[in-house]
Every structure is written in C-alpha cells, then in structure tokens.
UniProtKB/TrEMBL annotation:
SUPFAM superfamilies: Translation proteins SH3-like domain (SSF50104). This is 60S ribosomal protein L27. It comes from the Eukaryota. It comes from Linnemannia gamsii. Belongs to the eukaryotic ribosomal protein eL27 family. The lineage of its organism: Eukaryota, Fungi, Fungi incertae sedis, Mucoromycota, Mortierellomycotina. PANTHER family: 60S RIBOSOMAL PROTEIN L27 (PTHR10497). The keyword Ribosomal protein applies. Keywords: Ribonucleoprotein, Ribosomal protein. InterPro entries: Ribosomal_eL27 (IPR001141), Ribosomal_eL27_CS (IPR018262), Ribosomal_eL27_KOW (IPR041991), Ribosomal_eL27_sf (IPR038655), Translation_prot_SH3-like_sf (IPR008991).
C-alpha cells in the first residue's frame, strides 16, 4: 500500500505503508530509522481532446525519484496506492552506484507511466497543493 506524503521540499513523495525498504533501528551509514521512498518529481501535463497522439505521449511523461528519508521527516496521509512490483525494482544496493540508481529510476518510471496511462489513481499524478 502506498501512502502519499508531503515534505518541506519542492515536490511530493510517495511512501509505502510497507515501504520499499525500511530500517527501523538504523544502519551503519545512517544511525536513524529510515525508509526508501519512490515518488513523482515532475508530474504529467494537462491533456485536451484536440491534441495529437505525439503531443499526448510527450505530455504524459513522468519523472520519478527514489530517496532515503528519515522517519521523522514523513507525514502519512489517508491515500493509498498498491504497486507490488516496485519492491523488486529498488533495493538498498541501488544507492551504492549511480548506474544502479538510474536503472531503478527507469523501472519506476515505466511502472508509474503505465499506471498513469491506464487512468488509475489520478490523484497520485496531480501536484500536491499546500
């Protein structure tokens, strides 16, 4: 289950109720409880009826992010989204090398765009207004 959260950053995050990976006790690198989160950094643009297929495809792109976030900086909300396939796409090892991180982002982008184009969970792909 995915829960949308807001942070003091310029974009919104998406947090798993059962996170992609969570470390409650902390680790050697990070001595605090944290979770790997995935979310939308740049949202798809508005589409109208009179736009062509090429323009619709270009405006339907999603820019995702993956990030390690301290539990103290998260604020859960009531919204939920289930994407079980994300858990296999991102691991703690994804953050060790930039190339692995880029591969994880590409996998997340593909999943997010499939979800957006299917028309499910439209609230997830709209900018948070706060």
């Amino acid at each position: 289950m995915l829960v949308s959260i807001s942070l003091p950053f310029s974009f919104s995050l998406a947090l798993y109720d059962c996170p992609l990976l969570h470390v409650d006790e902390g680790s050697k690198e990070r001595g605090y409880g944290h979770a790997i989160v995935a979310g939308v950094e740049r949202y798809p643009l508005k589409i109208t009826k009179n736009m062509g297929k090429k323009r619709v495809a270009k405006r339907s792109k999603v820019k995702p992010f993956i990030k390690i976030v301290n539990y103290n900086h998260m604020m859960p909300t009531r919204y939920g989204l289930e994407l079980e396939s994300l858990k296999s796409a991102v691991t703690l090892d994804s953050f060790k090398e930039p190339s692995q991180r880029e591969e994880a982002k590409k996998a997340i982008k593909k999943l997010f765009e499939e979800r957006y184009n299917s028309g499910k969970n439209k609230w997830f792909f709209t900018k948070l207004r706060f």
